[in-house]
């Protein structure tokens, strides 16, 4: 059974607190917070103040996904006593090792994400210091895109590496996943599944969440 992190990018922003309370009451593990800067990705979502505004509504920890150029500039803004992970993109950091170190110095678990076109081997030198690897199964920037199955061998690669090296990072996947295809990423060995549209737009959220986790 996988853990689930619904992405609030697909929530109804006009009643965000209500939507957050609703999904948090359905046995989810984390709330996925998609932050986009209009530079690393061609879209702008929201920033730390919006995240902090739902802190009282969120009864599960925040899983923050920074799609931001040089995210090291903003780490401290996303640290709250409810922040479990802060994930940055390999492609967005000029000094990934320092960025990971600074996240951990704040007492938060450090995640690193790779875009679909990035080869999984690029994280080789960082694996021992990372708490979470986020494999993108769509091009970052927008919700509601089609799942790319090129993410599956990457999940398997990180799972096998973890076994070979005796490491303990978690593996997460993000983009285009719902109850219809979640078995693919579960079979590849993923630990945490991000799902935006599938959960927030589901006619039956409980059934959708159950179908994703397996
Ligand atoms: C894409 C975001 C995803 C996205 C997932 O840039 O990182 O978290 O919101 O949304 P769905 O599940 O709709 O593909
Ligand atoms: Zn995301």
What string gives the helices and strands in order? Answer: EHEHEEHEEHEHEHH
| Total number of beta strands | 8
Please list the strands of the largest sheet in the order they lie side by side: 1-8-7-6-5-4-3-2
Shape call: globular
Describe the fold and architecture.
This protein has 214 residues and is an alpha/beta fold. The chain is 28% helix and 20% strand. It has 7 helices and 8 strands; from the N terminus they run E-H-E-H-E-E-H-E-E-H-E-H-E-H-H. The chain has an 8-stranded parallel β-sheet. The structure holds D-xylitol-5-phosphate and zinc ion. D-xylitol-5-phosphate binds next to strand 2, strand 3, strand 8 and helix 6.
Q: Which tags fit this structure?
A:
214 residues; alpha/beta; eight-stranded parallel β-sheet; binds D-xylitol-5-phosphate; binds zinc ion
Describe what is shown at a glance:
The chain is an alpha/beta fold and 214 residues long. The chain has 7 helices and 8 strands; from the N terminus they run βαβαββαββαβαβαα.
Give me the secondary-structure topology.
Layout: E1 3-6, H1 16-24, E2 31-36, H2 48-53, E3 62-67, E4 83-89, H3 96-105, E5 109-114, E6 132-136, H4 151-165, E7 170-174, H5 182-188, E8 192-195, H6 197-200, H7 205-213
Parallel strand pairs: 1-8, 2-3, 3-4, 4-5, 5-6, 6-7, 7-8
Bound molecules: D-xylitol-5-phosphate and zinc ion.
């Amino acid at each position: 059974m996988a853990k689930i992190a619904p992405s609030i990018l697909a929530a109804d922003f006009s009643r965000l607190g209500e939507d957050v309370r609703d999904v948090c009451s359905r046995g989810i593990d984390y709330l996925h917070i998609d932050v986009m800067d209009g530079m690393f990705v061609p879209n702008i979502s929201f920033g730390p103040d919006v995240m902090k505004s739902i802190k009282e509504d969120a009864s599960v920890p925040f899983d923050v996904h920074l799609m931001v150029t040089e995210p090291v500039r903003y780490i401290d803004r996303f640290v709250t006593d409810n922040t479990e992970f802060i994930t940055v993109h390999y492609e967005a950091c000029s000094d990934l090792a320092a960025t990971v170190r600074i996240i951990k110095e704040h007492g938060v678990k450090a995640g690193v994400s790779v875009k679909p076109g990035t080869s999984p081997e690029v994280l080789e030198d960082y694996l021992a210091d990372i708490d979470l690897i986020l494999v993108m199964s769509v091009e970052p920037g927008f919700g509601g895109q089609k799942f790319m199955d090129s993410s599956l061998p990457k999940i398997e690669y990180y799972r096998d590496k973890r076994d070979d090296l005796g490491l303990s990072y978690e593996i997460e996947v993000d983009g285009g996943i719902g109850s219809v295809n979640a078995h693919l990423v579960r079979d590849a060995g993923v630990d945490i599944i991000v799902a935006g549209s599938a959960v927030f737009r589901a006619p039956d959220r409980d059934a959708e969440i159950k179908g994703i986790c397996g």
